[in-house]
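thought: fold this chain, then report.
action: predict
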Amino acid sequence: MITKKGKICKRLFDICFSFFGILILLPIIFLIAISATISFRYNGFFWQKRIGQFGKPFLIFKIRTMYVQRKNSNYITVANDKRSNKFGHFLRKTKLDELPQLFNIFIGNMSFVGPRPDVEGYADKLEGENRIILEMKPGVTSPASIFFRNEEEILATKENPKEYNDSVIWPKKIEINREYVENWSMKNDLKCIFKTVF
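observation:
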């Protein structure tokens, strides 16, 4: 379990590297966002409510990878492969759509490494000892996201993707995330970042 000293080290690491990441990658982020705006004919930046540390919701920043459709006079994103295109698939495959999360890290509602932030109905429903996962800030990467790096492809082969996610993938993510939190170290975070990049 992370100590007070560990939290300080982790936060200092996040602030420093997210700041330099934003300085270096900001032109690329805007270029990709402009390309996404042209490709999907809507604002290339995308934000969505996710569950963060201690179960509190926050807005996660991403690059749009799907079209939007009008429904009841409101624009909504439809999570369906038919609503995306080759550019969107490329962004998700390369994780370039995650670059705006550098801002989430800098302002403090995310970390470079930590359990991936879920939509409502998952992390916020954790019970008992599993709620230890919520002690950590959600991350851009995690051991669980590396383990399930081909999650999209796996779910695409299933007849009922949501049922498979809820009964197989989600319980395994809980197991991996708990192990990460219970055995946290800065060394393990650096290893996770290295594995994510390479």
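thought: worth noting. Helices lie at 4-40, 86-94, 101-107, 143-147, 151-156, 161-182, 186-197.
final: tokens above.
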